[in-house]
Structures are given as structure tokens and as C-alpha cells.
Amino acid sequence: MEKMSSKKSKLDIMGNGLLPRRTLDLYAMNAGDGPRSYVQNSSYQRGVVDIAKPIIEDEIARKLDIKNLSSTSPNCIWVADFGCSTGHNSFPAMQIVTQAIYQKHMLFSRLSKGELLVLQRDRKEVCAAYLNQYAKDIEAFLEARAVEMVSGGLMALLISGVPASWNPDTEYTLPSDINLLGSCVMDMAKKGRFSEAKVDSFNLPLYFTTPEQLKTILERSYSFTIERFEILNNPGKHALRSVNAHAAFYRAVIEGPLTNHFGSDIMDELFDLYMEKLAASPVFLNPDNDKSIVILAVLKRRSD
């Protein structure tokens, strides 16, 4: 058998980063911006970056947790590009990563003080970030259902939503109710029952879509077609006509996450305060002022 040479190949040396600088220069992309430069002839590579963008954004949104990074990590996030281009494609690639991190850990933390939900009056980029995440969640849900359903199968979705606009001075929606409850939480923090930082760290993962937003998301699906799309209004006999009915409804829905974060000992006090604010409001106890909607979407599984 031929003996293996003890001399390292150029590939081995290059892989170990041992090549001198003058040799590394031999592998650089063509510089400048002339007709034979990398800048003028790298649209293929840019296309690869563009295709990878939604995957990278999704993975960062789902899996990057800066709170659980190694304790030896510095107080900053390092982003490295290990390509060998001359910058034309490096900058967009780096921007994809930094913007995805910014969106996940900055925009999603910008709730107004004392509010449990982002409302349409908040900063546009904040609302856009939440809508983007909602779209990803709906798309993931549809992908999972597509695996379970046969071609031609039907699925009916009932989704709570809001109109594109409403007058908060004379009308209310589900988010309005929840933010009224949020103001009660903030009042209790000001009384010293818990810290305001405790309020700011509370996460209520709800998004109330408009019909237009939801329809746009559903129309992008490769697995389903929209067979029917309607806006439903709850019959008056099911309306929340009293203070007790309002409080009981929302307590049944969100007491779990509230208790988990703030503790069970403050729940009675919280919802008593909530009922006081409901009773003092000229808006919430009139069912005619309720502009909340339910969206019915009937989807059909496409053929594979």
C-alpha cells in the first residue's frame, strides 16, 4: 500500500487557515465595478441570498433566544459573513440578519406602557412586526393542516377579528376590552401590588386581524383555496350586556396567563377594578357599540 504523504495538501492548509495573505489574495473575487467585476456579475449569488432570506428570518424569529446564550458571551451579538465576495452581496446578507434580530428583540418589546396589546394607533413598524409574525403563524398552521387533509377536503376557520377602523371614543372591540383590563393592571402596579417592570414583561400572544389582512395571508397559501369568506356578527342574544358578563367572559379567557405571571392572589382585586371601570364607561355596556367581528373562512385542500 502506498504510504500517505505527511505533507499537507494545499486544500488542507487552506482549510486550516494557514495560507499567507498573498496567497489568499489569489482567491479573491474580481474587484472594482467594471464589466468583468464581481459586482457586475453576481446576480446569481444575490438571488441565492434573496431565496434564503425568509428562511433565515423565520429561524431567527423562532429559535434565536439571546437570553439563553452562553454566559461567557459578550453583551453584544456578533454577525459574521464567511463568504469571499467583495461586499456587493455581503451587505444585504448582513442586513437580513440584523433586521431580523432587531424585529424580534426590539420591535416586539415596544408596547405602550400599561397596555397589554398593540393597537392600530401605535407605531407603524411595531404593528407591521406583529402582523408579520401573525402571518407566519397562520402559514405554519395551514402547512400543518395540509399534511393531515386529503385533496378536496374542506376546513372551516372561525377567527376573531376587528374592522379596519373604529372610533375608540364611542365604539369598542375585543382589543379595547383587553386594554381596559390592562389599564387596571397598571393601576395596581402604581399602588405597589407589583412592579411596573412586571407589567412590561407580560406577554399576551394575541393578534386580532382585519378581514383584509387575513384574506391576503390565506390567498398566499399553496395548499388551500378560499371557497368562502364572510364577516359574521354575533347575534344580540349572546351580547355581553352587563358588567358581570363582561368580567366573567374575559376572566374565563385570560385568567390563566394573568395568574401565571402576576399570581392568583390579585385576580379578584383585578377583576373588581375592571368591573368598576366598565360600569363607569358609557361605551362598553351598549352592545350596539361593539364592533368586534368573527371571520368565517372555508378553505379547500388543493390537489398535490
UniProtKB/TrEMBL annotation:
Belongs to the methyltransferase superfamily. Type-7 methyltransferase family. One of its GO terms (molecular function) is methyltransferase activity. InterPro entries: MeTrfase_7, SAM-dependent_MTases_sf. It comes from Sesamum latifolium. SUPFAM superfamilies: S-adenosyl-L-methionine-dependent methyltransferases. It holds the Pfam family Methyltransf_7. The lineage of its organism: Eukaryota, Viridiplantae, Streptophyta, Embryophyta, Tracheophyta. This is Loganic acid O-methyltransferase.
